[in-house]
């Protein structure tokens, strides 16, 4: 019994020593990125905690009263705020339409680029360019050079065919913003889908062609199922970013009611003149929670992609 007990104690001691060495090695590997981790925590989590605190207070800059802690009253008032509900509905419409159409356009462009032709590199670079344009610049460009009723390119084409000029940003504010978002985000979707297309097993496609499968049949039964994880990833990443759009709305339509999403409404309730920083902070927390949920789903999809590749 004594010998067995001694052996068991030695084994436990050895396991503890191994775990201790593994923890030490783990910290050694993390040490080089520790400054970046601390910096990220400081610039992201501390402001978030302040916002969370402010969301539990009644804080108005247009009144001399000090901040007053009111608990979850700001959150309780959200369902009864018609303007918040309208902004949330606009956010849903804008995000869904922009992601869906940019994914369709990006997929079509990826299919066109997934073949060898003269000038392929140049064409690919030109197609990526819209995604690299700053949102404010893109908004000004489309508002002044494309949508303008007097000298916009779109209205110039309409006039050639005998149609009257249309002030797109005024008559169709939501559609105008969605068009610009699709123009900017289609290259992003194209790159993701193109990565999926170029990772296909060409021998399977060749075997399908030998068996008499049509191009559409091969795409529908072989290519599309393989692209599904990439399409899901593009959809989720696009939704994470597009739910936070602000620049395009401010520049193109100036926050008209038909195109006022949650980020724009939050800015109006705080720095835009509403001065209700406590209430605006509660709106921000809701948007952050929704973004975190979408981000977690996106990370799961990305993790599955990496596991499949390995």
Structure overview:
The chain has helices at residues 2-30, 34-54, 73-76, 82-113, 120-132, 135-146, 153-160, 168-171, 173-198, 202-210, 215-242, 247-253, 262-269, 277-309, and strands at 57-58, 68-69. The protein is mainly alpha-helical and 310 residues long. It has 2 domains: 2-54; 79-309, MetI-like (MetI-like fold). A two-stranded antiparallel sheet has the order 1-2. α5 packs across α9 (173-198) and α6 packs parallel to α12. The radius of gyration is 27 Å and the shape is flat.
Number of domains: 2
Rounded to an integer, what's the Rg over CA atoms?
A: 27 Å
**Could you name the CATH class of the largest domain?**
Mainly Alpha
End-to-end gap: 48 Å
Strand order of the largest sheet: 1-2
Major sheet = 2 strands, antiparallel
The shape is: flat
Estimate percent helicity.
over 70%
User: What is the residue-mean pLDDT, rounded to a whole number?
Assistant: 79
Helix and strand pattern = HHEEHHHHHHHHHHHH
**Which architecture of the largest domain would the CATH scheme give at its second level?**
Orthogonal Bundle
Per the CATH scheme, the topology name of the largest domain is: MetI-like fold
Low-confidence segments, given as residue ranges, are none
Helix count, DSSP H or I runs of 4 or more residues: 14
Strand content: under 5%
Structural class: mainly alpha
The CATH homologous superfamily of the largest domain corresponds to: MetI-like
